[in-house]
Design a protein that fits this description.
This protein is α+β, with helices and mostly antiparallel strands and 242 residues long. It folds into 2 domains: 2-125, 2,3-Dihydroxybiphenyl 1,2-Dioxygenase, domain 1 (Roll), CATH 3.10.180.10; 140-241, 2,3-Dihydroxybiphenyl 1,2-Dioxygenase, domain 1 (Roll), CATH 3.10.180. The chain has helices at 24-35, 82-91, 150-160, 200-209, and strands spanning 14-21, 38-42, 48-53, 56-63, 72-78, 95-96, 101-103, 107-113, 119-125, 140-147, 174-178, 190-197, 213-221, 224-230, 236-241. The strands form 2 sheets. Strands 1, 2, 3, 4, 5, 6, 7, 8 and 9 form a 9-stranded mixed β-sheet that branches. Strands 11-10-12-15-14-13 form a 6-stranded mixed β-sheet, covered by helices on one side. The chain is globular, with a radius of gyration of 17 Å. The two termini are 28 Å apart. 43% of the residues are buried. The model has no long low-confidence stretch (mean pLDDT 92). Pfam families: Glyoxalase. Residues 13-125 form the VOC domain. It comes from Streptomyces andamanensis. This is VOC family protein.
Length: 242
């Protein structure tokens, strides 16, 4: 099964994304039409619905348990030994945000924050290793860390995942840039999940038609043409055309 491809998701590789939403039924309508997703219920998976592309898992939509929580997309990095990785996060100046959560037979999830406060997830796989589809239209394509301290990010995340994450020979699917390159300088540091699309302009037209909005118009990057959008509930994400 595609969900058992654990070898594709070694430590530090982006392996999963989810959206914390006030209304998952509305999320199904929005993202189902935008990306062609279908959905299945998984009660053991925290009450989430899992989005499928061509029958394979690509994301989850999770109901917010507390209205004070942000409406946001979160990227999860593979953590075969979550406990050891959590120790390195603390040693590097980051923190775990609450206790890890066992999600039935699928795996264990935890939320963490880097020294600047950018939130990301960790995923220790059980039955679910991660994306069954990626790098194709309608699925995960990239995650970008927007930071105010690029050298600090190099040090923290490079040490965390024992890898050179940025620059020549860097790990694929994960980059970083100064906040001010795309967003106003006052924007907090954050991770931005990118979904691959056939045409960015067509995807943005669909976003607006479905009740979302364009936050940042299309711009060119080294990894493709990117635009930032906000869904009809306030969760930001990027679409990427290659």
């Amino acid at each position: 099964m595609a969900e058992n491809r654990a070898s594709a998701y070694t430590e530090g590789v982006p392996c999963w994304v989810d959206a914390q939403l006030p209304d998952t039924a509305a999320g199904r309508r929005f993202y189902g039409e935008l990306f062609g997703w279908t959905f299945e219920e998984r009660e053991a998976y925290g009450g989430s619905v899992v989005a499928l592309l061509e029958g394979e898992p690509v994301a989850a939509l999770t109901p917010k348990s507390d209205g004070r929580m942000p409406t946001v997309w979160t990227v999860y990095f593979a953590a075969p030994d979550l406990g050891a990785l959590a120790g390195r996060i603390r040693a590097g100046g980051g923190q775990l945000l609450g206790e890890p959560r066992q999600l039935g037979p699928y795996g264990t999830a935890a939320l963490a924050a880097g020294p600047e406060g950018a939130v990301f997830g960790l995923w220790q796989p059980g039955r679910h290793a991660g994306f069954g589809r990626r790098h194709r239209p309608g699925s995960f394509g990239w995650v970008q860390l927007y930071t105010r301290d690029t050298e600090g990010a190099n040090t923290f995340y490079g040490g965390l995942f024992h890898a050179a994450l940025f620059g020549p020979g860097a790990r694929p699917d994960f980059g970083r840039a100064p906040v001010g390159d795309v967003f106003p300088a006052e924007m907090p540091p954050h991770f931005l999940v990118h979904f691959l699309v056939e045409e960015a302009a067509t995807a943005l037209d669909a976003v607006v038609r479905l009740g979302g909005r364009v936050q940042v118009p299309p711009f060119e990057t080294s990894y493709g043409k990117v635009a930032v959008a906000v869904d009809d509930q306030g969760a930001s994400f990027a679409v990427m055309e290659r």
